[in-house]
Design brief:
The structure holds two protein chains of two kinds. Chain A is mainly α. Chain A has one helix at 7-44. The chains are: A mainly alpha, B mainly alpha.
Chain lengths: 58, 243
């Protein structure tokens, strides 16, 4: 497969899309871990929801 | 089970836990098919191989407007029906929409340089999409600036609905003004002007990016619900310590 004289533009566009989407996925995954960790820490310190259920409970 | 039952965040979290793994798998499969079709698509007789940039540029451009439309619908839910998940949906969508808009601008510029001879032109389509990107950033900043989520939600909802005026401007800018950007070639009266060799990979990539948005949006909404639980537990902890 030849990308012709504009190969650098095509490859850069696909790399940029891959990088930005990977950052987005990574940020959302890390945010989930951070929130569940904070919730568990709060529950372990004795702070629970009024319903009595775990804050991470699905 | 009706849609209104998902107004309960706990039920929404349970639904997300069941649906997300399937959505991740489906998104990955459709994206791989779309990428394969994009890479193996023939060169265009005018654009050459740079037509391959269109397979990522156009879906990102579609999503940049679609996400704002979703946020506008959610804003109505916040202001009119005070739906408990409406502003969660709007807030979670904003960074994803900003990322898609950024990619639409970057990939468009990378296509424009070899085809138009310039990375940027202050024409109506490009400028209105840049304004959309800045509005996304403004909304994200607003949500971060106001501490109370309810107050932030109302202000952001009003700003989102005002910003929705930009959507028809973006869509019809190529018809209303004389622009460098080409007019609509897929969703237009009279049907698509694209050859099937380009239309099919483009539509598959469009579906893939739509699925990607749905997946990321559900995951980001789940995170936002958990963030609000953290906030309410922290407030409860602070009030106990003060008592």
């Amino acid at each position: 497969m030849s990308l012709g004289p504009y190969a650098s533009f095509i490859v850069t566009a696909y790399l940029a899309a891959t990088f930005v989407i990977a950052m987005l996925i990574g940020w959302i995954a890390l945010d989930y871990r951070s929130q569940t960790r904070r919730l568990r820490a709060l529950e372990e310190s004795g702070v629970v929801r009024r319903s009595g259920r775990s804050a991470t409970e699905l | 089970m009706t849609l209104t039952e998902f107004a309960n965040p706990t039920k929404f979290l349970a639904l997300t836990a069941r649906v997300l793994p399937w959505l991740v798998g489906l998104t990955a499969i459709v994206l791989l098919i779309g990428l394969y079709q994009s890479v193996t698509a023939p060169d265009d007789y005018q654009q050459g191989a740079t037509v391959k940039i269109m397979f990522i540029h156009v879906p990102n451009a579609w999503l940049s407007m679609f996400v704002w439309a979703v946020m506008s619908a959610a804003s109505l839910g916040t202001l009119v029906w005070r739906h408990p998940l409406a502003d969660v949906a709007a807030k979670a969508a904003a960074p994803i929409g900003a990322a898609f808009t950024f990619l639409a601008l970057v990939t468009g510029s990378l296509w424009g340089r070899p085809m138009w001879g310039t990375y940027w032109e202050w024409d109506a389509r490009l400028t209105s999409v840049l304004i959309l990107f800045l509005m996304y950033l403004g909304l994200i900043a607003l949500w971060r600036a106001v501490e109370d989520p309810a107050r932030a939600a109302r202000a952001a909802a009003v700003l989102t609905l005002v910003g929705a005026v930009n959507l028809p401007v973006i869509k019809f800018s190529v018809d209303w003004w004389n622009t460098l950007h080409q007019p609509a070639s897929v969703f237009r009266a009279g049907g698509s002007t694209l050859d099937r060799a380009f239309l099919i990979p483009l539509l598959v990539m469009g579906v893939a990016f739509m699925l990607l948005f749905l997946t990321l949006h559900l995951a980001a909404m789940r995170n936002e619900i958990l963030r609000r639980r953290v906030r309410s537990l922290q407030m409860l902890q602070a009030s106990r310590q003060a008592a």
